[in-house]
Amino acid sequence: MDFTQLAMKNRLLINALLLLLLVGLGLFVWLNPHTDKPQKQPLTQLNEHDVQVIKIHRADKPDIVLQKQKSKWEMTSPYYFDVASHKVKLLLTLLHEPINAEYSIEGKNLEQYQLSPEKVSIQFNDEDKIIFGMSNPISYDRYIRRNNKILLISETVYSTLTADAASFFKINLIPKGRQIAKIELPKGYQSKDDTPVKWQLIQAVQVFGWNPDEEPSQAVVHIHLDNGDTIDYEIIQHESELWLGNRKLQAKYQIADENREDLLPR
């Protein structure tokens, strides 16, 4: 056997050994179960179905109290109104947010994390208050304080907690279960046969807080309900946009352009 044949034979042997090694590694990985990383602890042990009361504190705004009534949620402070269910569901996601890091508050400067003085917090039932601080500039996780711990979590509720109380309202203009008995449009508008139906079914694009002193209205729509109650919606114009203000709730509702003529026909 010459040198060329010997080198070729050795190369084939090496290739065969490498192939066997790869097959062996593949079998090892397949036959041996993967080692799972330890699961992160959730922020709370509460089940969302057990939550009956949610209290939200903001240092610069009135506190918000949400109360569960059977299968629906109501705001009992600072206003009394039905609450949009998707807003509550968003808040409840906080219950099971995984804790990404945990530190003792001992020796920590809480002001550095914007955890003192308290600016924004939430409390579920009578559980310990969850105080919100700044977001981490690298991971964008939020620093929060609970008991004697500083925790880092990834959350999506902070903007909801800091919004106006009116942002929790349902976007329906007419309360669920009520029917319009009569509608009175202001001068310059003419109600049609289907105008009450349009008002009954309409939903706002979004809801914000409203200060009538800063945003005066132009006219008022009086809506008389089947239970004898009356809801007044004040017409607020923002250039080409139509907003309807509810003075009692201090809330304003944005109406889509395509619904303007439905609600206020001429």
Question: If you had to describe this structure to a student in words, what would you say it looks like?
Answer:
- It is built from five helices and 15 strands.
- The chain is an alpha+beta fold.
- It folds into two domains: 48-164, no CATH class; 171-263, no CATH class.
- Strands 4-3-2-1-6-7-8-9-5 form a nine-stranded antiparallel β-sheet, with no helix packed on it.
- A hairpin with a 3-residue loop joins strand 3 (72-77) and strand 4.
- The N and C termini lie far apart (105 Å).
Binned, the helix content reads 10-25%
Rg over CA atoms: 30 Å
Report mean pLDDT, rounded to a whole number.
Answer: 89
Give the topology string: H per helix, E per strand.
HEEEEHEEEEEHEHEEEEEH
Distance between the termini: 105 Å
Query: Structural class given helices, strands, pairing?
Result: alpha+beta
Count of discrete alpha- or pi-helical segments spanning 4 or more residues: 5
Strand content: 25-35%
- Flag low-confidence runs: none
- What is the total domain count? 2
Biggest sheet statistics: 9 strands, antiparallel
Number of strands: 15
Task: Write out key terms for the chains shown.
6-stranded antiparallel β-sheet; 266 residues; 20% helix; 9-stranded antiparallel β-sheet; single chain; 15 strands; 2 domains; alpha+beta
Spell out the blueprint of helices and strands:
Elements: H1 3-31, E1 53-58, E2 61-69, E3 72-77, E4 81-82, H2 85-92, E5 99-104, E6 120-124, E7 130-135, E8 142-146, E9 149-153, H3 158-161, E10 180-184, H4 195-201, E11 206-209, E12 219-225, E13 230-238, E14 241-246, E15 251-255, H5 260-263
Antiparallel strand pairs: 1-2, 1-6, 2-3, 3-4, 5-9, 6-7, 7-8, 8-9, 10-12, 11-15, 12-13, 13-14, 14-15
